[in-house]
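User: Teach me something about this protein's shape.
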Amino acid sequence: MTLRYSPLDNNHRALDAKMVPFGGWEMPLSYPGGTVAEHLACRRGAVAFDVSHLGTVRVSGSDALPRLQAALTNDLTRIGPGRAQYTHLLDEGDGSVLDDIIVWWVADEVFDVMPNASNTERVVEALGSHAIDVTTGRAVIALQGPESRSVLAKTFPAAAEVGRFKVEVLDWDGVTCTVAGTGYTGEDGVEIAVPTAHAPGAWDALIGSGFEPAGLGARDTLRLEAGLPLHGHELGPGISPLQAGLGWVVAWDKDGGFRGKEALAAERDRGVTRVLRALSVQGRRPPRADQPVLVDGEPVGVVTSGNFSPVLGHGIALAFVAPSVAIGDEVAIDIRGEAVPASVVKPPFV
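Assistant: First, the predicted structure itself:
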């Protein structure tokens, strides 16, 4: 596969980022300070992530809303223009999650559908010939952390005022940008879509104003502490919204239904065979994906994501387990042959 490069690639290299392939793109894993420092900077201050590898699929016109309604699980009529919504695109055969998506409702008949990097082409196909992949026309910079708005106000004050899950098209020193109050860390913040030609200068201005650069490593540990699913781990082929505990994104009663509804309803009626649980692990040893979850020494499930929590100081994990495993139960994770005790907790961890 030929790797794609962010419009901010030179900026990252100038900051001595460690670059790695991810979802068909070469992206920064971390900067010289390291993942833990970047993670804590997000929890305590303000960081900037390059998330340009995520797709942007523009759907517009008088039939845009009905086409999205027919394809995606959530109900866009619950919100309206100037808002964002989390939703799923399902496999028609088994109701599993082909992708989890944020939709930015930019204007009355204009939507930016934001798929995961490796799923952009799949989403375009599902939405039909009028869906246009505009990923290469912009960079997306995610500004996250409790101080993100105050730092952003130094350079782009209008963007700092965009509320949670709100969307606005704003002028930034003569450049038209789309700003959404969304993110993937559990912290407050916004994401800014900047036209490609202006993106390097925008990134430098943000870093110069006080944002710490952060890479994919911190993005993953932050989303795990927040209990947020990652496609390919907690969502993907064979994994339905019901198994992942995300039934709230399914609008069963919306007019016309949605792609995959019949298969998902069949699973709802017969009951899921596994559920996603959050596990708080004793000690500093990080659990990892594919490690068995045990009850009384017998396997009851498997870890999907695991790591050391920089904030909590111990291991945490998400795992698919038997439905009988409930919040408050004590389990263990087989970490390289040792049964390490863990408690089933209600997410988020932080």
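Now, about its shape. The chain has three domains: 4-51+135-225, 57-125, 273-345. The longest helix spans residues 199-209. If you'd like, I can walk through any region in more detail.
User: That's plenty for now, thanks!
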